[in-house]
Specification:
InterPro entries: KDZ. It contains nine helices and two strands. It is mainly alpha-helical and about 130 residues long. It folds into two domains: about 80 residues, no CATH class; about 40 residues. It is globular and about 40 Å long. Bound molecules: zinc ion (ZN).
Length: about 130
């Protein structure tokens, strides 16, 4: 997770961001420490950023009351009304693709997954009606 987040943020000059992660409450406690263990080129000056970590709405229900109080999307600045579970909703559509794409190369797999997501988004747009 550290590698994914730090890689994603490298090269961006964001001043403020929010990280939504199912177990952000636990993960964030060691982010600063883990940042110092990354390659120098990947390390971020986290003290230069304003960031907040949140637990997505549906996942928060399984966390204790204190965690929900501290990490709820409802109490964070700039979040709006999202539940931050958007990525989870496509898992059920994407799961069958694992079997279909397990024997193909990386490039072709990327194309197939992209086609599936494009199709999903197109169908979603059609379903919005007029
Ligand atoms: Zn928690």
């Amino acid at each position: 997770m550290d590698f994914i987040i730090l890689s994603a943020l490298a090269g961006f000059s964001l001043l403020m961001f929010t990280i939504s992660y199912d177990i952000a409450c636990q993960w964030k406690t060691r982010l600063t420490e883990h940042n110092t263990k990354m390659l120098k080129e990947m390390q971020l000056q986290l003290d230069k950023f304003t960031y907040q970590c949140v637990v997505p709405g549906w996942h928060a229900a399984s966390h204790n009351d204190k965690c929900q109080e501290n990490n709820s999307l409802s109490f964070k600045l700039g979040i709006g009304k999202t539940d931050s579970e958007g990525m989870e909703r496509v898992w059920s559509i994407m799961n069958p693709m694992a079997y279909h794409t397990k024997d193909i190369g990386c490039g072709q797999r990327t194309d197939v997954v992209e086609d599936k997501i494009d199709s999903h988004n197109f169908q979603k747009n059609l379903g919005q009606g007029m």
